[in-house]
Amino acid sequence: MGMKTGHGQKKRHGGALAADAETDSWRKCPDCDSIIFIKEVRRNHDVCTACGHHFRIGARRRIDLVADQGSFVELFLDLETTDPIGFTDSIPYPQRIEKAKEKSGNTEAVIVGRADILERSVILSVMAVFFMDGSMGSVVGEKITRAIETAIREETPLVSFTASGGARMQEGLISLLQMAKTTSAVSRLKQTRIPYISVLTDPTTGGVSASLAMLGDLNIAEPRALIGFAGPRVIQQTVRETLPEGFQRSEFLLEHGMLDMVVERARMREVLASCLRFMAPVAKPVAMPARASAD
After folding, report:
1. What is the pTM of this model?
2. Measuring CA to CA, which residue among 193, 194, 198, 191 is closest to residue 216?
3. How far apart are CA 180 and CA 135, in angstroms?
4. Any idea where the domains of the chain sit in the sequence?
5. Given pLDDT bands bounded at 50, 70 and 90, which one contains residue 232?
6. Distance between CA atoms of 205 and 127, rounded to whole angstroms?
7. Quick one: how far is CA 287 from the chain centroid?
8. Between β-strands 26-28 and 35-37, what pairing exists: parallel, antiparallel or unpaired?
9. Quick check: helix, strand or coil at residue 237?
10. Beta strands 158-164 and 196-205, pairing class
11. Are 103 and 139 in contact (CB under 8 A)?
């Protein structure tokens, strides 16, 4: 189904350079136009020190910010994308995959593994927005599904970070099937009552938003994250009405009951750990009553 097993430049997004690909000393905030020293931004969790804009970050940077140091163990490294429908646009699909690998430093648009978050064990799934805009193809769907199955088998909470432009058109119907595949896996997870925390980051759109992203027992988002199925321009052209201010941003969704909370990146690790302590408390040994003396 569009995958095989094997051994395991600067790019602009929303007016900002990809954080993991920068080599210059300064970067410009797309929200407030402040010119900020890159090292200062990095120290601030890749958040603008002037206005709080959350820059898009790579999957491995995300893992570094959330997981306890040295705890992350990546899984399913042997899965690689093939060319299931022989797709070619300006270049053949296999060439596009190779270019995405070179630019992002990742082999696919999701990284999954075991990790600890403030000493709480989790299965962690993190989408890589700088790999073909985090699009969900057969390998992405398979890795996420296997992560969910691992959470079920090991009775470990699942934490998912989504960042995606939607289904990967280069895989046609196979990419759309991943919506049903991941949704079905989440349904099986819920039957076991194992906690699933979904964290939606900028952007979470298309088929990913319409499947696993919004199905968490707890749905959290970063500030001002773009979240929705179709883009605002497409919706406005379809309904022919002016959309409300902040439409499809995380704060708007929180106000209308689609999210449980909006959490700044600097607080995300502590909030996740707190939620895990509540949702999956570690059982303590039961104190046995002292035995009565034979005398």
Report:
1. 0.86
2. 198
3. 15
4. 3-9+57-279
5. confident
6. 12
7. 41
8. antiparallel
9. helix
10. parallel
11. no
